[in-house]
Amino acid sequence: MFTLRDFQFHDTQRLVEILNDSDVTAFLSTKIPQPYTKADALWWVEEGSKSGLIKAITVNDELVGCIGVNRGEFEYERSAEIGYWLAQAHWRKGIMLGAIEQLVEDVFTNTNIVRIFANVFSPNDASKQLLLKAGFQQEGVLKHAIFKQGAIYDCHLFSKLKNS
Questions:
Q1: Which of 30, 55, 81, 123 has a C-alpha 20 to 30 A away from that of 155?
Q2: Where are the domains of the chain?
Q3: Rounded distance between C-alpha atoms, residue 82 and residue 73, angstroms
């Protein structure tokens, strides 16, 4: 069983541990500093996690992941991008599927957002399958859209619409 909650000060050490695992961060944005330091974790808890609708994923009150949506701006204000990560020890246990379903339901029920989308690196088959299981549909592939650590990847675009 997992819980979604706000990030707390005592999560900082777990943030450092999890976000220094290259398997966890392989397909995450380079906005996440590498190496990930205690100062980065403190900034995240105190400021970064306060923008958008961002939640810590916990099991027995221990941080195991993160999930959030960031609302678009201007003409994209009714659309939001979802992002997530999970500690490797908790992969393939249904936690992230449940977290996605819970957050999407909360967003569609309590906001005026009508579209949630995700951008997925081409080799990240686990995330593609996860989004499909959560009711997202693949909208397209943006060729050579991602450049990270010297490599170019295609970006697979998935979305879920309110009431679909």
A1: 55
A2: 3-116
A3: 15
